[in-house]
Structures are given as structure tokens and as C-alpha cells.
Amino acid sequence: MNTASTSTSLTQKEKNDNMKSIENEIKILSQLDNPFIVKLYEVFSININEELYHNKEEETDDNDRIICLILELCENGDLNDKIKEKKQKNEMFTEKEILHYFYEILQGLYYLHKNRVLHRDLKTLNIFLTKDNHIKIGDFGVSKKLINNNIYAYTFVGTPYYLSPEICQNKPYDEKSDVWSLGVLIYELITLNKPFDSNSQMGLFMKILKGKPAPIINTIKRSYSQQLINLVIDNLLDKDPITRYGIMQTINSGIFDKYFREKELKQKMLQKKKKNITII
Q1: CA pair distance 147, 152, nearest whole angstrom
Q2: Does residue 69 contact residue 43 with C-beta atoms inside 8 Å?
Q3: C-alpha span between 184 and 161 (Å, rounded)
Q4: pLDDT tens, 24-53?
Q5: What is the rounded distance in angstroms from the CA atom of residue 50 to the CA atom of residue 58?
Q6: CA 177 vs CA 119, 200, 238, 255: distances in Å
Q7: Phi and psi at residue 200, to the nearest 5°
Q8: Which residues are catalytic?
């Protein structure tokens, strides 16, 4: 269960921003229904004074209320947790693992974009994992639903490391901005590090706008296909949103062909094994 409260330790602006974020998440999530999106089950509010002190007589204001969201349970943490685990164990993700997460995130994004929703804060912290290791895209606090004939968004939002070049330049942006963030995320799964980093936000923006992703060392390169590395570096992290791959281009790039063949073979073997079981 997620909660949002207007704590007295926050400034009025921070309280208002928090409330806007949670209201936006409720509005967006209540319109979504997809296997790769965190499901919103219920929303309710409670009064702190009533719950803690059983005081129902005193007049209350908004500062005493907490909005609660009951969300789908993701028992396996998030992708950021998985990256930390890999670093601690000095391990890398297998290409099979990356393609599994990659494809399911693409499916979730395809659904969002088809419904004219821009996530705008796609990052490893917002990709949650179920007990069966399936992904759920979450945290829609800064997401945007395009309305009427609008095809672009304009507001500067998101986590700096994942911002697209067009957002860094305060230019209009569309679904391709989410694709850039996805490129940063997949690069991170490959290298366990971010492609662009700096000690200052301005330095980070300059690297995103003008620099190349941090080089992938040969020991890491040898663990992954050149096709995967090229797709991320050349197509998803393309600074020009016009030539940057879209969701369907990425899905149809051929990168998942081997993954699906292996998955299909595994399913056939399981079915064959079940048929060979004799019930006594």
C-alpha cells in the first residue's frame, strides 16, 4: 500500500506538489489495465488524528489526512534492487535475462503509448518485479495523458540521468522520450552503470546533449551480442528523436527472435514432459 500525506515538515509548495503527484497517479492508473502495468485496486483517505488519538470531535484540515493507494503487490522488488545485487555478487545479467525484461517493458510502453500516456519517469526504480519475475511499470506521478490532437508534451519533468536530449533542451517531446529512457535503462542492465554521468546537473545535460555513452569495456562486450549493444547505443540512445527507434521498430528489430525460439522450445519440452508422466 502506498500513502501520500501532507507532513508538517514540508513546505506548502512541497505539500501541494506531493498532492498533485498522487492525484495524477490515481487519475492515470485508474484508466489503465495491462499485465505489465502496476494495478490500482483501491484509493481511500484516513485522518491521522482520528486513527492515532481516536479524536473525532476536533475539526480537521487537509494536513491531517493521508491518501492511501492499494496497489498490486510486487514481491521481488525492482530492477534497481537487482542491479545492486549483481554488483554485490560481482555478476552480470545474462542476455536472456535482459531480453526478458526488455520485451516486457516494451509491451507495457506500447500499451501506454497506444492509450496516449507518456510515462516521463521510466527508470530502474520504477520497474517492479513480481514473484514470478515479470515486470510491472509503476510510479505514474509525473505521467502525462495527451488529450485532443496534442502529440507533444512540454513540461520539464523526470529523473536527470534518464532525461532525453529534447527534454534537456526544453523542446517539445513525445513517446520517443520514453524510448530514450528505456535505452538508458537497458544500457544500465548491460553495464550496471549509467551511460551518462557527471558531478553537476549542467555537466550531465551537456553529456546527454553532446557526449557519447560511456564506453562498454571489452570484458562486458564479450558477454552480449553486438546486435543488442548496437540497438541500445545506435537506435535507442539516438539523440535525434526523429531517427530514434520507436516501440514497434524495437520489437521488430530481430533482437527477440532467438529469445522467442528458446522460449517456444522450452514450452514444447515442458508439454512433452507432462505427456510422459504416468498417473498411477
Answers
A1: 10
A2: yes
A3: 8
A4: 889 999 999 999 999 999 988 887 665 544
A5: 9
A6: 9, 22, 11, 21
A7: -135, 155
A8: 121
- pLDDT band of residue 260 (cuts 50, 70, 90) is confident
pTM for this entry: 0.84
Distance CA 188, CA 91 (A): 13
Asked if 198 and 207 count as a contact pair (C-beta separation under 8 A), the reply is yes
Distance spanning both ends of the chain, measured CA to CA: 46
User: In this structure, what DSSP letter does residue 217 have?
Assistant: P
The residue ranking higher by pLDDT, 52 or 251, is: 251
Question: What is residue 127's DSSP assignment?
Answer: E
* H or E element that contains 80: helix 79-89
Report the C-alpha gap between 260 and 100 in whole angstroms: 10
Residues facing residue 128 across a β-bridge: 78, 136
CA distances from 64 to 3, 36, 58, 144, 227 (A): 13, 34, 11, 28, 54
Phi, psi for 68 (deg, rounded to 5): -115, 135
Note the pLDDT tens digit of each residue in 234-244: 999 999 999 99
Q: How far apart are CA 127 and CA 173, in angstroms?
A: 22
